[in-house]
Design goal:
By secondary structure, this protein is an alpha+beta fold. The chain is built from 19 helices and 14 strands. Strands 1, 2, 3, 4, 6 and 7 form a six-stranded antiparallel sheet that branches. It has a four-stranded mixed sheet with strand order 5-11-10-8. The N and C termini lie far apart (63 Å).
């Protein structure tokens, strides 16, 4: 494969193979059942085969298909366990891997972007990529001044592929809702579509990365690599060693999980106030733990520009909610547009609906876990509960859309890490407007 398949018909056919493949496996499973194989074993085999096809199709297409797969993979923590197992290892592969481009294509891109004598900039360049993801892959090299560098190269044809994929994926979004119960796919697709132009322009990404790097220079908790050279489709930046967060998720010790979860949660909050940008691609492939305990952060193609930091209203109505003030919580959500004018919402039911999201801040430490997240989704999606209709009455203001997606995705990653964090302390220190009551205070 020389680059991303650009033909819309070809890509559409591959994406269409996903639902058709499920139908085919259902027929295959029925045949196995008729042949006497136990239903449980047949179901497990079907789920495993579906997972393998999912990774194969999305990974080969890269582009928007791969980006969508990455966006969905961070939500696997919400799967019921009996469904999550066969998908987990396959979906999480989408977080930091994809089939690579051949060396000849890589050289062509570098020559077009950095000039025909591009090799003069490098003392060494490894043709084998160390990472490959949705719209680009990364090679390791040594810059002419001796610094180890990461060279990020955009796949040829990435732009047309992204536009084609999102259009096609929208048509099969109903199938995706089966992968992640309780997650609305349409807003994710809409938001991905709106940010395509920025993610395809490595000039913008390089400037965002350098802003982060300067803002976090010499920070004791975080490491951001500086950019050395960039063009529209290539970024050369400092190399960042470390243990990928995906590996911590797979086999980290309890101590490693706790350290990674704490740093990860802190970064999501501290970035906007420090540099006026929110890192908006929270999947684990973009984070790694360094030997000195810092969290390394890469890939700044998706950012939310927040020149004044996170909105202080977020911390303010969180403070009101954790104090148990139902009327104050409703008033705050009305003021910020989360409840539309004239919408009838019962304040007590609203607070009950929000309670699972507040619960992690009611103790000094909290362990985010897959079972906890499944309970949260059960709480908000159970039609037998009196507060079930509350969610349907809430609105998501446009200015909060990306913040909401990042935090929802971030919570999913925290649950994958399964680490215990001092979340209350982190929120109190870094969320504007948050004034959390002492734990000893009675909840009114």
């Amino acid at each position: 494969m020389s680059d991303i398949p650009r033909n819309a018909v070809t890509r559409a056919a591959k994406l269409a193979a996903l639902p058709m493949g499920i139908a085919g496996r259902a027929a295959w499973g029925l045949g196995k059942r008729v042949g006497g194989k136990p239903a449980e074993i047949v179901a497990a085999e079907m789920q495993a085969r579906t997972a393998e096809q999912l990774f194969s199709v999305l990974g080969q297409l890269k582009g928007g298909a791969m980006k969508f797969g990455q966006a969905m993979s961070i939500f696997e923590s919400a799967f019921p366990e009996e469904l999550a197992a066969p998908y987990r290892s396959v979906l999480t592969k989408l977080q930091d891997s994809a089939p690579p481009l051949p060396a000849a294509t890589v050289h062509s891109v570098l020559a077009a972007e950095l000039g025909p004598r591009w090799r003069r900039g490098f003392a060494e360049f490894d043709d084998t990529p160390v990472a490959a993801a949705s719209i680009g892959q990364v090679h390791r090299g040594v810059w002419r001044d001796g610094r180890d560098v990461a060279v990020k190269i955009q796949y040829p044809g990435a732009g047309p592929a992204l536009l084609s994929d999102i259009a096609q994926i929208s048509r099969v979004a109903r199938m995706a809702t089966m992968w992640v119960p309780g997650i609305e796919i349409k807003p994710i697709l809409d938001e991905l579509r709106s940010r395509m132009a920025e993610e395809l322009d490595y000039n913008l990404e390089a400037k965002s990365q350098e802003k982060f790097a300067k803002g976090f220079d010499d920070d004791p908790h975080f490491a951001i690599p500086h950019v050395i050279k960039f063009s529209e489709h290539v970024i050369v930046s400092e190399w960042l060693d470390g243990t990928p967060l995906s590996r911590v998720i797979a086999d980290g010790t309890p101590e490693e999980r706790d350290a990674a979860a704490g740093r990860y949660m802190e970064f999501l909050l501290v970035g906007p106030g420090r540099v006026g940008l929110l890192h908006a691609d929270p999947h684990p492939g973009n984070f790694r733990m360094l030997q000195d305990g810092r969290l390394g952060v890469i890939d700044f193609g998706a950012v939310n520009r927040l020149p004044k930091g996170l909105p202080p209203e977020m911390g303010q109505f969180l403070t009101v909610a954790i104090r148990g003030d139902a009327e104050g919580t409703l008033a705050g959500l009305r003021e910020t547009g989360f409840v539309r004018p004239g919408m009838d919402v019962d304040a007590e039911r609203l607070l009950e609906y929000l309670e699972p999201f507040i619960d992690p801040l009611r103790t000094d430490t909290f362990r985010f876990s897959r079972p906890w997240l499944r309970d949260v989704f059960a709480h908000i999606n159970d039609p037998r509960r009196p507060n079930y209709t509350v969610g349907m009455r809430l609105n998501l203001p446009p200015e909060y859309l990306l913040i909401h997606r990042v935090w929802l995705g971030g919570i999913g990653v925290l649950c994958q890490i399964n680490g215990e964090v001092r979340g209350r302390e982190i929120v109190a220190a870094h969320m504007p407007g948050a004034v959390l009551p002492p734990l000893a205070d009675p909840v009114s």
